[in-house]
Amino acid sequence: MHPLLHTKDNVACKDLMIALDQCHAKGFLWKSMGMCNDAKDQLAACLRAERFKTQKFNRAGVKDKKAQIREAWREIDENS
User: Fold this and answer.
1) Could you give the CA distance from residue 64 to residue 80 in angstroms, rounded to a whole number?
2) Is the pLDDT score of 5 beyond 70?
3) Residue 1 three-state SS
4) Residue 36 and residue 67: Cα distance in Å, rounded?
5) pTM here?
6) What pLDDT, on the 0 to 100 scale, is given for residue 30?
7) Kindly report the CA angle at 34 between 32 and 36, in degrees rounded to 5?
8) Distance between CA atoms of 60 and 53, rounded to whole angstroms?
9) How far is the C-alpha of 44 from the C-alpha of 56, rounded, in Å?
10) DSSP string, 32-71
11) pLDDT digits over 16-62, tens only?
C-alpha cells in the first residue's frame, strides 16, 4: 500500500482512503476476489495527482533558488 496515507498532505484523497478502508474491513475474501480494486485504483490516481502537484511546486522553488545562486556567483565573479 502507499506510505504516509494518513498525513495532512493527502487531505484531498481522504474520502477515497476511507472508502478503501471500509472495503478492506469487509473481510479477506472480499479483498481477495478483487472487490476493492476500483477503490484502490481511484486512490492511487488521486495520490498520484497530489504527488504531481507537490513535485511541480517543489521544482518551481528549486528553479528560483538555483537562479538566486547563479546570480550570487555571477556577482562574486564580477567583483573578483
Assistant:
1) 25
2) no
3) coil
4) 46
5) 0.71
6) 86
7) 105
8) 11
9) 18
10) HTTTTHHHHHHHHHHHHHHHHHHHHHHHHHHHHHHHHHHH
11) 999 999 999 999 898 889 999 999 999 999 999 988 998 999 998 89
